User: Which sequence fits this backbone?
């Protein structure tokens, strides 16, 4: 129940949502990319969120056993690639077309990315509100005994 | 007389602790709004305070109520309505956050009032 624990919780979520936004931008930017370093078209990436666990040391101290169970925010467990099949488009004039004129395009759905982007923005805003609420409460606590 | 005043204040202190912890827990819930299989957490304090007040322990100073009695419980998974197993309702959490913030401000005002009373008595009402 530290003073800045709730700040850290909101901050962890803010950076996680920002990373999610970065990855969504990366996906949208590469919606037509047919060449990557390993020779395949671009694969859509997603961010995996995980609840940030309370550090083990807190469980060891009996004093804090109850207090610290509020958790400590969210963390990014990893950036994973979407393994769904690539889209196949008939375009014989494309330099990356195979002998049948089929081009394998990235498995990025622009609509999905847009929806996820709005979701990330809203989640970011919600966490900013939570942070502001914590801030106003902490400042209010300074007024005790004035 | 003075001890009674202090007891009254310590109840507000516990309530402040609970409100602060609840703010943390709500922040945690909002932070994990997109985490798969996360279950929202809640703080239980008011029920405890009510039962202690009903039993009359608080007015006799025999209350075992401390900030460590404040419990954090996980909401049951049955209330999940999302396909990713997460049961955080963002609107609900934002409403709780706003309500909790106001509750905290009210408690701060109340505790300031208690101090003001004490100051007033010390000054002899002048």
Assistant:
């Amino acid at each position: 129940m530290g003073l800045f624990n709730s700040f850290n919780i909101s901050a962890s979520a803010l950076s996680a949502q920002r990373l999610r936004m970065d990855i969504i931008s990366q996906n949208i930017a590469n919606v037509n990319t047919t060449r990557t370093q390993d020779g395949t078209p671009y694969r859509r990436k997603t961010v995996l969120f995980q609840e940030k666990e309370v550090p083990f040391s807190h469980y060891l101290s009996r004093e804090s056993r109850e207090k610290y169970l509020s958790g400590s925010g969210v963390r990014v467990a990893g950036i994973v690639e979407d393994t769904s099949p690539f889209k196949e488009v008939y375009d014989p004039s494309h330099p990356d077309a195979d002998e049948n004129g089929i081009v394998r395009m990235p498995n990025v759905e622009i609509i999905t990315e847009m929806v996820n982007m709005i979701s990330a923005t809203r989640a970011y805003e919600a966490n900013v509100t939570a942070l502001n609420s914590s801030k106003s409460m902490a400042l209010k606590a300074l007024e005790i005994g004035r | 007389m003075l001890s009674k005043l202090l007891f009254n204040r310590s109840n507000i202190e516990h309530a402040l602790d609970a409100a602060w912890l609840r703010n943390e827990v709500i922040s945690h819930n909002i932070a994990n709004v997109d985490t798969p299989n996360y279950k929202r957490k809640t703080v239980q304090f008011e029920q405890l305070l009510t039962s202690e007040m009903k039993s009359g322990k608080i007015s006799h100073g025999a209350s075992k109520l401390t900030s460590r009695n404040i419990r954090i419980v996980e909401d049951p998974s049955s209330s999940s309505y999302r396909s990713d197993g997460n049961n955080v309702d963002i609107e609900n959490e934002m409403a709780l956050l706003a309500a909790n913030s106001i509750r905290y401000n009210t408690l701060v005002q109340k505790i300031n009032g208690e101090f003001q009373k004490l100051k007033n008595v010390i000054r002899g009402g002048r």
About this structure: Helices of chain B lie at 2-31, 46-54, 90-122. Residues 2-122 of chain B form one domain. The mean pLDDT of chain B is 82. Chain B touches chain A at residues 16-17, 19-21, 23-28, 30-36, 38, 41, 67-68, 70-72, 90, 93-94, 97-98, 100-101, 104-105, 108, 111-112, 115 (CB under 8 Å).
